[in-house]
């Protein structure tokens, strides 16, 4: 990984989505997935350990959901850019995520090319 490569941590409780997103990201030379987590708790530990440039975080997860994970990350001084990835386009969810420190918000039903462009 060189200085021009963006390191990414994926946090989502659906293995198929994590693997698919990882494969999509691997098509881009300047993006590298450095880790993945199936839960908010696991994702928090990995974020602190690996200090990625970008975290892609699922909003709706079992246990520690995305908003709680986001809030806890910011409280633990995780400075990575964090993009919420979800099926929800509810304005309240978007505003809450932004108020908790999210840097962006992507919908899971977007075209893969559009997701890559936004990342």
Notes on the protein architecture:
This protein is α/β, with parallel strands linked by helices and 119 residues long. It has a single domain (6-118), classed as Rossmann fold (3-Layer(aba) Sandwich), CATH 3.40.50.2300. It has five helices and five strands; from the N terminus they run βαβαβαβαβα. The chain has helices spanning 15-26, 40-50, 66-75, 91-99, 112-118; strands at residues 6-11, 31-37, 54-58, 81-86, 104-107. It has a five-stranded parallel sheet with strand order 2-1-3-4-5, with helices on both faces. The longest helix is centred in the N-terminal third of the chain and has 12 residues, at 15-26. The relative contact order is 0.18. The mean pLDDT is 92.
Main attributes of the structure:
alpha/beta; 24% strand; 5 strands; 119 residues
Write the layout of secondary structure elements.
Blueprint: E1 6-11, H1 15-26, E2 31-37, H2 40-50, E3 54-58, H3 66-75, E4 81-86, H4 91-99, E5 104-107, H5 112-118
Parallel strand pairs: 1-2, 1-3, 3-4, 4-5
Principal-axis shape equals: globular
Count the helices. How many? 5
**In angstroms, what separates the terminal alpha carbons?**
18 Å
> Under CATH, the topology is which?
Rossmann fold
Largest sheet: 5 strands, parallel
Query: How is the largest sheet built, in terms of strand order?
Result: 2-1-3-4-5
CATH class: Alpha Beta
Brief account:
This protein has 119 residues and is of the alpha/beta class. It has helices at 15-26, 40-50, 66-75, 91-99, 112-118, and strands at residues 6-11, 31-37, 54-58, 81-86, 104-107. It is globular and about 35 Å long.
